[in-house]
Amino acid sequence: MGLQKNAEDKIITIPNLLSMFRIVLIVPMVIFFVYKNYIGAVLCIVISGLSDMFDGMIARRFNQISKLGKMLDPIADKLTLVAVIICIGILIPNVRLLVIILAAKDILMLLGGAYLIHRSITPPAAKWYGKIATVVFYISVTTVVAIEVFGGAAMAAQLSVLITVLLTITSCVMVFALVMYAILFFQLLKNN
């Protein structure tokens, strides 16, 4: 195990380690959330978002794009997003419909990626629309959780329209990304 000759076949790279770190970071994030340590949970979300941003930059800048990384990065994204979405649905019950939409989108994308791998088709690297959806998600989630946690119930009630708008925009951006990835998914199936 270790570094192979072909850059695409590398297993141990900084971006791959960052993706694995994001997967591991889900556990403390959920534990913090369950024990109502929202600052710790938000900190985990922010660290996850930053490491997601840096793993792609490092992969491109230092030619560390690998087959494993192309699979690990979206898996880490989807697992993190689903965990955060479920936590938000528990924290803010009136947004459960949006939570279901977001969770369904990420579960469908995970299943699609698994199906491609099953068919011996390498899933594509994350695309710009997926990255934008992830950034919008992190900004919205951090804002919503900050309003709920630091503003209390009164502020959350006053800003419920803002919370709904943020989560609706996030849902629209995520559904757009899902549609774009679905088109790419069917193109890959057709070409193989």
Describe the structure in your own words:
By secondary structure, the protein is an all-alpha fold. The chain has a single domain, classed as Four Helix Bundle (Hemerythrin (Met), subunit A) (Up-down Bundle). Helices cover 81% and strands 0% of the residues. The radius of gyration is 17 Å and the shape is globular.
Helix-strand blueprint:
Blueprint: H1 14-34, H2 38-61, H3 67-91, H4 96-118, H5 128-158, H6 160-191
- Largest sheet entry: none
Strand content: under 5%
**CATH architecture descriptor name:** Up-down Bundle
How many H/I helices? Answer: 6
Percent range of helical residues? over 70%
| Topology order in helix (H) and strand (E) letters | HHHHHH
Overall residue-averaged pLDDT value? 82
- Which CATH class applies here? Mainly Alpha
The low-confidence runs, each spanning 5 or more residues with pLDDT under 50, are 1-5
Our Rg estimate from Cα atoms comes to 17 Å
Number of domains: 1
Distance between the terminal alpha carbons, to the nearest Å? 30 Å
Class from secondary-structure proportions: mainly alpha
CATH topology: Four Helix Bundle (Hemerythrin (Met), subunit A)
Say how many strands there are.
Answer: 0
Shape: globular
